[in-house]
């Protein structure tokens, strides 16, 4: 299904759409408030963008350096060309230890690779431990936002889900009560699982360590109690030096939720005594994207989600309408690289208003890339046939002045005299809105009278 | 095998090198670090208490915890009110800890984060698995921003280190902020001096 079709489903419940829209805008406003407190904010963004640019130009050497230092630190390093290899590597590590149950903290990469499904098929149970991710996992849904995985749900939904799966009181939707129930439920998992998987926010070439940021403490609870810690990262997570964390950690949480920093910013350098630590470095199309000059800047992304919170299309269509692990504007410029024909609709799910670009902490030119992807997709033959037909009709009309003039006149006459012909469900512009009043005359007619 | 292919692909496709930016002028703060630290900590759900000496801390803890509560510490000075011989145990044995008392290397004013490393945690899981966390730092050990923080730890050697800023929290249920997700439910910082 395409973005436009999936949005129709989301838009059925108007109150919920309004709530979703306002809630994400509220998160965007918290981001603004946090950003405006720092006079150096714009300099920080520019600095972060330049650091990431340096990273893109030196990825080969930084990765080699990172690997050498990680090995020195006693960490095992694996390389995965694609999702399938990534999943097999994780499975092999777990099999070697006879692990059948694992806890996992948030990792969009493992969503991208569909690791949970792969492991389930191989008889391994994965418990997602981020509260939002656990909620959607129990509901057998994917996350709808990279930072706020359950933002599409209301507390009534969570109350019902927990009643069914965790045995909480029926009808109780108090977030404090529900969070306490999840805390108890997941504590038991942390205490009994032998393996923990985490994502990676930043990997430092200079030291061979990696940093994982959470508010809940779930990554740390999993990793510090498990015998085996597996950390999975896309290779673009690398940064040159520890001192660069100062820049990124100042930007990340402020951009994401308006917090000055996440509760925990954990630096994993060596496995603890008796523990095994693995890092899986994943390509999965990233080296191809690196070679696309127009699109390589998308690899600067630090996954804060600010572009989603501000996007007028995301806020009103919901994360699931993007049918990709990463939704919203950034997802729409990453997804076509993964599968052009499957994700050809996503760069069109935008008004190109540019708000995403304005809030991006690493200054990715997101809306320009959305526009450029459209050109690429049309050239490669992935244009929507209806849209193509419309464009051809428009080209014809605009290049024949007489047709244009008469077309406008006819259109206005119909809108005025037979509004039911335009205000019906066959007209996609009529969805969720009324058509405007037709003007009495066109500008051309007015000009001919008044010049 | 994938390693060589991936690295070759990257080498072929990576853009030209651009120099790293200098990290100067990034702290334009004008606040008093201690006051900012206290204000921000309150804003993120923690509590800052200024004390003159360790005895005051012990009195406050005695008032707030019962003798049946399991309290642990890595600080020898607190050996009279807390266990301090658990560091070599299995980390799972800390599951019933009510309060964990540790020190931090320093704090950061802009976000109230406290830098702690494995050597002062005893066990890595200690500040996460405890129900409540108390951290002690000298009042004059507050850096203005993360840049000064990383200058301090640029060359530091550790197996594990973390910045902790307030109690664990979540807003995953309808954006309602709830303290006490998986880590500690409360965090108090004793500023000594």
TrEMBL record, chain A:
GO molecular function: 4 iron, 4 sulfur cluster binding; metal ion binding
All copies of domain 4Fe-4S ferredoxin-type, residue ranges: 291-321
Transcription regulation is among the record's keywords: no
GO biological process, one term: lactate metabolic process
Alphabetized InterPro entries for the sequence: 4Fe4S_Fe-S-bd, 4Fe4S_Fe_S_CS, FTHF_cligase-like_sf, Helical_ferredxn, LUD_dom, LutB/LldF, LutB_C, NagB/RpiA_transferase-like
Domain of life assignment: Bacteria
Keyword Repeat recorded: yes
Keyword terms of this UniProt record: 4Fe-4S, Electron transport, Iron, Iron-sulfur, Metal-binding, Repeat, Transport
Name used for this protein in its record: L-lactate dehydrogenase complex protein LldF
Native species: Pseudarcicella hirudinis
TrEMBL record, chain B:
InterPro entries reported for this sequence: FTHF_cligase-like_sf, LUD_dom, NagB/RpiA_transferase-like
Species whose genome carries this gene: Pseudarcicella hirudinis
Coiled coil region boundaries: none
Protein name: L-lactate dehydrogenase complex protein LldG
Signal sequence region: none
PANTHER family: LACTATE UTILIZATION PROTEIN C
All copies of domain LUD, residue ranges: 87-192
Recorded superkingdom: Bacteria
């Amino acid at each position: 299904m395409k973005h436009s079709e999936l949005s129709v489903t989301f838009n059925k419940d108007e109150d919920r759409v309004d709530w979703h829209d306002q809630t994400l805008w509220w998160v965007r406003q918290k981001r603004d408030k946090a950003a405006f407190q720092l006079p150096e904010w714009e300099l920080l963004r520019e600095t972060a963008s330049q650091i990431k640019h340096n990273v893109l130009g030196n990825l080969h050497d930084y990765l080699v350096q990172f690997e050498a230092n990680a090995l020195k630190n006693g960490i095992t390093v694996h390389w995965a060309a694609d999702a399938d290899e990534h999943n097999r590597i994780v499975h092999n590590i777990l099999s070697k230890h006879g692990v059948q149950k694992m806890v996992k903290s948030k990792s969009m990469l493992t969503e991208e690779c569909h690791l949970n499904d792969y492991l389930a098929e191989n008889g391994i149970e994965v418990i997602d431990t981020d509260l939002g991710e656990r909620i959607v996992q129990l509901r057998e849904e994917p996350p709808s936002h990279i930072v706020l995985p359950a933002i599409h749900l209301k507390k009534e939904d969570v109350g019902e889900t927990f009643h069914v799966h965790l045995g909480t009181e029926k009808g109780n939707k108090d977030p404090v009560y529900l969070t306490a129930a999840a805390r108890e439920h997941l504590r038991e998992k942390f205490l009994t699982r032998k393996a923990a998987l985490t994502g990676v926010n930043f990997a430092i070439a200079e030291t061979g360590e990696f940093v994982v940021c959470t508010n809940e403490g779930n990554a740390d609870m999993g990793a510090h109690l498990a015998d085996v810690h597996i950390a999975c990262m896309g290779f673009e997570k690398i940064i040159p030096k520890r001192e660069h964390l100062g820049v990124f950690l100042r930007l990340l949480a402020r951009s994401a939720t308006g917090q000055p920093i996440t509760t925990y910013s954990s630096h994993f350098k060596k496995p603890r005594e008796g523990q095994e630590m693995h890092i899986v470095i994943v390509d999965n199309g990233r080296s191809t994207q690196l070679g696309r000059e127009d699109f390589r800047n998308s690899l600067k992304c630090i996954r804060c989600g600010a572009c989603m919170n501000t996007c007028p299309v995301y806020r009103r269509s919901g994360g699931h309408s993007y049918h990709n692990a990463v939704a919203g504007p950034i997802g729409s410029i990453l997804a076509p690289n993964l599968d052009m024909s499957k994700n050809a609709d996503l760069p069109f799910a935008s008004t190109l208003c540019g708000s995403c670009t304005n809030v991006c902490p690493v200054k990715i030119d997101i809306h320009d890339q959305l526009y450029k992807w459209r050109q690429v997709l049309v050239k490669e033959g992935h244009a929507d046939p209806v849209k193509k037909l419309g464009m051809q009709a428009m080209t014809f009309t605009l290049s024949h002045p007489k047709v244009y003039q008469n077309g406008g006149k006819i259109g206005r006459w119909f809108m005025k005299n037979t509004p039911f012909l335009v205000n019906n469900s066959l007209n996609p512009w009529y969805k969720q809105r009324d058509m405007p009043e037709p003007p009495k005359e066109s500008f051309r007619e007015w000009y001919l009278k008044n010049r | 095998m994938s390693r060589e292919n991936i690295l070759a692909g990257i080498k072929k496709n990576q853009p030209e090198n651009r120099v790293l930016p200098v990290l100067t002028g990034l702290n334009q703060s004008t606040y008093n670090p201690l006051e900012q630290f206290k204000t921000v900590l309150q804003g993120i759900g923690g509590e800052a208490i200024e004390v003159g000496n360790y005895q005051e801390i012990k009195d406050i803890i005695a008032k707030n915890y019962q003798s049946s509560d399991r309290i642990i510490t890595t600080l020898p000075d607190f050996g009279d009110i807390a266990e301090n011989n658990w560091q070599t145990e299995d980390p799972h044995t800390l599951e019933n800890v009510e309060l964990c008392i540790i020190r931090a290397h320093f704090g950061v004013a802009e976000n109230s984060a406290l830098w702690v490393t494995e050597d002062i945690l005893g066990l890595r899981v200690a500040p996460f698995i405890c129900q409540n966390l108390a951290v002690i730092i000298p009042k004059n050990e507050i850096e203005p921003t993360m840049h000064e923080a990383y200058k301090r730890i640029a060359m530091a050697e550790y197996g594990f280190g973390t910045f902790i800023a307030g109690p664990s929290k979540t807003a995953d249920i309808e954006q309602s902020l709830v303290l006490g997700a998986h880590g500690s439910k409360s965090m108090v910082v004793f500023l000594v001096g």
